[in-house]
Write a structure and sequence with these properties.
alpha+beta
Length: 209
């Protein structure tokens, strides 16, 4: 009986120990389940955020594609405009010089190269640093005045060979109606001036008679 009691006591201790281990294990399982549940909630929240980010990225990509299409269309339009401008500049017989607000030469026609003694490397140089074939009084001041006041100026000048030109300086307007420099054009009026001189000479002769 004593032996059985001892064995019973040992068995009872083991059972108590097993019960305590079970309770501890259950608590650990419960804590693990709570952590898993919390992790699942976090994962679900992350999935929702990722889904939102994916939708935002998709929307941004669509906007970028739309902007790319617009940019391609605008680039195509600019290419056509540049082609038209280049063709116009190369085919016109009028000497034209375009300068920026800083009075640096931006572009000129082939006829301007011939009449005004310009070379391709003059693009980007200040117009005041170039010795032109035609002497225009106070050219830089006049250009700045046209840019500031937006009022065209016109004068008659001679080149070194005595040929008459009408110099017209106008504000250079961009497509969005901003002043971005000035446009200088020269109109050959030599024949008109000689005709006027002949007419004036004839009138003076008639009056003298």
């Amino acid at each position: 009986i004593t032996k059985l009691r001892k064995e019973f006591a040992l068995t009872e201790k083991r059972l108590n120990a097993i019960s305590e281990e079970k309770d501890t294990f259950n608590e650990e399982l419960r804590a693990a389940n709570e952590e898993i549940q919390s992790s699942n909630e976090e994962l679900q929240s992350m999935n929702e955020e990722l889904e939102t980010s994916k939708e935002e990225l998709q929307s941004t990509n669509e906007e970028l594609l739309s902007m790319n299409d617009e940019m391609q269309n605008k680039n195509s339009e600019l290419t056509h405009l540049n082609s038209d401008l280049s063709n116009f500049f190369s085919s016109t017989n009028i000497p034209i010089i375009i300068v920026g607000n800083d009075l640096h030469i931006k572009r000129f026609t082939p006829m301007a190269r011939k009449v005004m003694n310009l070379i391709p490397t003059d693009v980007g140089r200040p117009i005041g640093d170039i010795k032109l074939n035609i002497e225009i009084a106070n050219l830089e001041e006049t250009i700045l005045g046209v840019i500031e006041d937006m009022v065209p100026k016109e004068s008659e000048v001679k080149d070194k060979e005595g040929r008459w030109y009408s110099v017209r300086i106008r504000p250079y307007r961009t497509i969005d109606n901003k002043i971005d420099g000035a446009l200088i054009s020269l109109i050959d009026i030599d024949a008109i001036k000689h005709s006027q001189e002949e007419v004036q000479g004839a009138l003076n002769y008639a009056q003298a008679i």
